[in-house]
Design goal:
The structure is a single chain. This protein has four helices and no strands. With 118 residues, it is mainly alpha-helical. The protein has a domain of 82 residues. Helix 1 crosses helix 3. It is elongated and about 55 Å long. The chain starts with a helix and ends in a 6-residue tail after the last helix. The relative contact order is 0.21. Pathway: Phospholipid metabolism. It is found in: Membrane. GO terms for molecular function: ethanolaminephosphotransferase activity. Belongs to the CDP-alcohol phosphatidyltransferase class-I family.
């Protein structure tokens, strides 16, 4: 992915803060979680006999996950490009990555469905 991210980072203006890129990616992951929680609040959608999540929701969630992952890969490259790398920025990035793992896993849980055993 690094060649792709090296190309994408050139699209961002140099005045754009890397932490803003980090936070934007995190917000996309949270939005995905909220979107799936709205359409599948019990995580039964993939279980037999339950209401299914609309196809467009899966497409949007997939695209936004890709964009969030791309933003997560580009933020550090933007920091090095603009000479604004800091230990606090790295902590911010890894901290939000940790929270993203929680939201991402719960979002993906809808794919498998809880089933009768929970």
């Amino acid at each position: 992915m690094h060649p792709f991210w090296n190309t994408i980072v050139k699209v961002f203006p140099t005045w754009l803060a890397p932490n803003l890129i980090t936070f934007s990616g995190f917000l996309l992951v949270v939005f995905n979680f909220l979107l799936m929680a709205y359409f599948d609040p019990d995580f039964y959608a993939s279980a037999p006999g339950h209401k299914h999540v609309p196809d467009w929701v899966w497409i949007v969630v997939g695209i936004l996950n890709f964009v969030a992952y791309t933003l997560d890969g580009v933020d550090g490259k933007q920091a090095r490009r603009t000479n604004s790398s800091t230990p606090l920025g790295e902590l911010f990035d890894h901290g939000l990555d940790s929270w993203s793992c929680v939201y991402f896993v719960v979002t993906v849980y809808s794919i498998f469905g809880r089933g009768s055993t929970g």
